[in-house]
Amino acid sequence: MKYILSVISLSLCCVINLYSQSFQYKNNNPFGLEFTNGTGKQSASKLLFYDMEGDGDLDAVVTGIDNIDYSGSFTYSKITYFVVVQENIGDKKHPVFAPRKPFMTDFPFPNGFFYPVIGDMNHDGRADFMVSSGLDKAKNLQTLYYERKSLEGNDQYSIFGPDTLKLAAFTGGSLFIPELSDFDKDGDLDLMMSGYQLETDSLGNNKQQPIFMYAKNTGSISKPKFLGWYQNPYGLENYTSTAHISTTGDIDNDGDIDMLTLSTLDTFKVISVIKNSIMSNGKPNFNNISLVNGIQKAGNSESYSPPTLADLDGDGDLDIFMAQNLKNTGMGIGYYENNSCVSSTANINIIACAGQSVTIGNQAFTQSGQYQVLSKTVGGCDSIINADLMFVSLDNAVNQTQNTLSAVQTGVQYQWVDCQNNFPITGATSQIFQPLANGKYAVRLKDINGCEVVSACVDFIISGNSEISAEHKISIFPNPTGNFVTIKNESSYKIESVSITDQTGRLLMKLSDGNYENINLTGLSKGIYIIETKTEKFKVHHQLNIMK
Questions:
Q1: Do residues 31 and 301 make contact, with C-beta atoms less than 8 angstroms apart?
Q2: pTM beyond 0.85, yes or no
């Protein structure tokens, strides 16, 4: 047992700075996480978080020592372990953990230590384990790969040892905790061991040498294979004055893998972060160690177990969870919230044109509606965007009555076009258009949002009557104007009324007194209006531009 307990009795002789990123202690046993079972036994030692059901949230796998038989001579078989699971019955942002239940009926614990790490090693959607450590006949420590082959029954795992993994055993008396991360960014999980190795000096004395052992995953996507061990890679040789029990994750949301460690500083147990400043070739470069701000040092009568990183509250940053026994918080699973991210919510209204696409985050939308989008900020934090999208569709239909063409869509800008040459027709900018010659005509519509649409070309043939020439004998001036306008009638038909509407068709003025000179427009603001002149036989529409 002295090798297990000695992890928390080492001293740190190097200088550690205070890490500027802040964590805040929230409470013990959050979200229903259970530190012990119903009888107060099976205290949690290590928490693993993984989506066991594939439902999009993280479940809790809790491990620790079940019992130690202190009678007689010590053997590793006298230490028994437990592994249980607490299903997350909440959701990604609001976890709620159900009570503990056995991981399986008869878990195949190794003869030796049981320090597991969880991950899908062969990309089959099932949770595998890398375990430290089984013992060979010489009591050397063997790294084991538990490949999950079934989700039911008592034979759920195939277990592979050093011969298959091609990983050398560690000297008996060593102690290592495994961690899985894609350190080299090649898409698979590599293995990092942290702890100490038992070595013998030149005088024959045994010593516990702090060390990191790295094995690169060089196998295929469905069959892991490791190349190792590499001692203290990527700058970690600078952090071996004491044993660091490590977990990994992107703590500062800068896109690389950092290391969170449990170690000792003088007589205290401390939680530190070893920052990764990734190199230009993509390889890690661990170059700075700092104490984590917001996590107190644990004194002689206090303790921490190896920490775990997980984003249980779905805000985009990694929080810290670890079994602890502190004077001011008591015994339990401590929850330390990462304050680098604060979830934000934004409400936006977007008007777009039919046929366009609006992209929010990594999602594209083409239909009107209300949508909620989860996106990432530059710092990797979650941001919720509530979007109210409206796609404007203009009606490009054209009606033909006698010798006029009229656009069905109201309240927009109009430009009639000669389809024979695709040229705009000068002055033909009203909703109603009276062609002067037979031909093909279309109208281009544009609304205040900039949405544009062109109608189909319409075949137009002038009817055989004299009204068309009479209609063009009614005009307005001045145009543009300021406060007055005159209707000039050179036709042989009497004007019955004059109406002025805005571009939405709303009637603003109507005159029928026969006096259509110097019509007073002072009550109208600057803008575009439609004047309709109605005679005994026809109606004439003009666009009036009022400038103040």
A1: no
A2: no
